[in-house]
Amino acid sequence: MNADDDASAYFRDLTSAQVITYGIHNAADVRAAEIQLTSRGTTFMLHSFSGTMAMELKLVGMFNVYNALAAISTALAERIPLEAIRQGLADLTSVPGRMEVIDEGQEFLVLADYAHTPDGLDKALSAVREFAEGKIITVFGCGGDRDRTKRPLMGQLAAKYSDVVIITSDNPRSEDPVRILKDIERGLHEHGACEASYVLIEDRRQAIVRAIEISGPGDIVLIAGKGHETYQLINDCTLHFDDREEAREAIRQKMMAGRQ
Fold first, then answer.
1. Cβ contact 41:60 at 8 Å
2. CA distance 135 to 155
3. Which end of the chain has fewer surrounding CB within 10 Å, N or C?
4. Of 32, 22, 24, 20, whose CA–CA distance to 77 is shortest?
5. 50: closest CA among 90, 71, 81, 87?
6. Which residues pair with 30 in a beta bridge?
7. Residues of the chain by 3-state class (helix, strand, coil), percent to 5
8. How far apart are alpha carbons 206 and 4 in whole angstroms?
9. Residue 205's closest CA among 254, 242, 239, 252?
């Protein structure tokens, strides 16, 4: 159980089973300390009932420290040696579409994430803000023929955390894409974002290209909303579209242009 979660005490009282706790801020059986969050991964010192060891993750964000602690606790309960746990975590790569790192050797970080709700976008961007050193450039849209009330909320969140916001299409379906973009834009205005801090680009491919073009060393590009999806729904058509493929191609083009 997560000792940093107030609900853990409630659930602990409901079980007669042995309980193992993990956490960062509160006392726990398995605890992470000296946490270092960077755009290239995460390190922390693990303190547990089986010993102390430095851990390294290729994954980013504080939420992945908690995920790692839960996995470590489970492995320790199964009597798996700490060294095997350390190696397993070090070898772990991004889950497809969940803060997935798009790496073509560029000097900036590109992440693709499935965040397509206000809560999801809040969590993704707050995780990025924890280790951001340069600009945060966010590319996202909202689905058509769906709840319109969440669009300005997501615009507010993007403006709150980002230095640059590129509003684009997601899966517009039968709805006018421009109307969707304008609904999102309203949220940026409500947050007080200046017009120089965002742009509306209906074509998602062009939006991703623009984000890559304006990024520099140390910046972070978050492409949110589709994650692992490999399609885009426009009117009655299902078209092949993969944010990760588009980002890789845009990065390669940028790097080739830089070498010329």
1. yes
2. 17
3. C
4. 20
5. 81
6. 22
7. 40, 25, 35
8. 42
9. 242
Q: In terms of Cα–Cα distance, which of 170, 160, 148, 226 is closest to 197?
A: 160
Q: Which two tokens stand for residue 138?
A: 């966010």
Distance CA 115, CA 121 (A): 5
Q: Taken in order 253, 254, 256, 260, is the CA torsion positive or negative?
A: positive
Q: Which amino acid is located at 17 in the chain?
A: A
How many helices and strands (H and E) does the chain possess?
8, 12
pTM value surpassing 0.85: yes
E-assigned strands of 10-129? 22-23, 30-38, 41-48, 51-57, 100-101, 109-113
**What is the rounded distance in angstroms from the CA atom of residue 178 to the CA atom of residue 183?**
9
Stretches where the chain sits below pLDDT 50 are none
CA distance 109 to 61: 13
Which residues are 227's β-sheet partners? none
Sign of CA dihedral 139, 37, 153, 226: positive
Beta-carbon contacts of 204 under 8 Å, excluding residues fewer than 6 positions away, are: 141, 168, 169, 170, 232, 241, 243, 246
Element (H, E) at 87: helix 82-91
List Cβ neighbours of 101 (8 Å cut-off, separation of 6 or more).
Answer: 58, 60, 94, 109, 110, 111
pLDDT tens-digit readout, 134-178: 999 999 999 999 999 999 999 999 999 999 999 999 999 999 999
